[in-house]
Structures are given as structure tokens and as C-alpha cells.
Amino acid sequence: MSTLEFLGHLFVSIRECISSPEDARDAIEREMDEIPFDASGKPDLRYFTKSLEHYIEVYEGGWKDREASSKYKWSGEPDDPNLAVIKDLVEKGNRKRVHATWGLIAKGAEAVPYALTMLKSPDSDIREDGAGILEALGNDDS
Q1: Residue 47 C-beta-side C-alpha neighbours within 13 Å
Q2: Model confidence pLDDT, tens digit, residues 108-130
Q3: Number of C-beta neighbours around residue 124 at 10 A
Q4: CA nearest 74: which of 94, 89, 62?
Q5: DSSP secondary structure letter of residue 52
Q6: Which of 58, 63, 76, 82, by CA, is between 20 and 30 Å from 49?
Q7: pLDDT of the residue at 27
Q8: How many whole angstroms separate alpha carbon 80 and alpha carbon 86?
Q9: Rounded to whole angstroms, how far apart are CA atoms 22 and 36?
Q10: How many other CB atoms sit within 10 Å of the CB of residue 134?
């Protein structure tokens, strides 16, 4: 193997070992895209195989994305570049929030303590998510 080939392999190996926040976000986006949905739009909960902690982290990360959007000011002009950034952050945050909520539902009784803490949040959307998780778990036919 030539020195150039060796360095090429070494670079690829190093790159695979180092993950950036962008890589993590891409992994979550890929994870979300791999979940199949039924005709009613409900995801197949059997595909939510990650840990409870993972879905809590994704849920809280979704809120962080949404909160980050408030750092950008929109001028009111439709061509303001900040508008695209704001929309992107809010959309990604909401997708993560919904995905993680389904993940918490898939975790079943294990997610109840976290859902109960959500009910104490000052944010009405978080309280609503917590109530939705508890309702889904209470209606679980399995």
C-alpha cells in the first residue's frame, strides 16, 4: 500500500471516529425518516428501539432548536434570509419533539415518570405533550 493510500484510509478512519453536532443532527433526522407510518399517520412503535434517555434527549433537543430560532430577528420582509433559518429551526424542533413523543409512548410505563414531570412545566405545549403521552399509555390495548 502506498503512503497516499495509507493516508487516505487513515483519514477515513479518523473521520468515522469523530462526530460533530451536525453529524448527530443528521443521525436523528435519518432515524426519524426510517420509521414507517400506517395509513392513519401513526408511526409503527416497534421501530422505536432506542433507550428512554435517547428519546428524552431528542425531545429536549427539539425544544432547544425551537428556542434557538428566537435568536434570529425577522424584518417582516418575505425575502429576509433570517426567515428561512427561523422556519428551519422551528420545523426541525417540532419534528424532533413529535418523534421523541412517539418514542416515549413506545417506551410504555418506563416513560411515565418523565411524562409526569412534563405536566409541571410552565410551557403549555410541554404539558400538552406530557398529557398526550399519558393518555396514549392509558389507552394502550397491549
Answers
A1: 15
A2: 999 999 999 999 999 999 999 99
A3: 8
A4: 89
A5: H
A6: 63
A7: 84
A8: 10
A9: 24
A10: 18
Alpha-carbon distance of 69 to 87, in angstroms, equals 8
Contact 130, 116 (CB under 8 A): yes
Query: Nearest Cα to 56, choosing from 122, 92, 89, 105?
Result: 105
Crossing angle, helix 81-107 and helix 21-33, to 10 degrees?
60
Count how many Cα atoms sit within 13 Å of the Cα of residue 33 in the half-sphere of its side chain.
7
At residue 126, the pLDDT reads 96
Strand partners, 43: 37
22 pLDDT band, cuts 50/70/90, is low
Phi, psi of 119 (to 5 degrees): -65, -20
pTM over 0.85: no
If 0-12 CB within 10 Å is exposed, 13-18 middle and 19+ buried, where does residue 123 land?
A: exposed
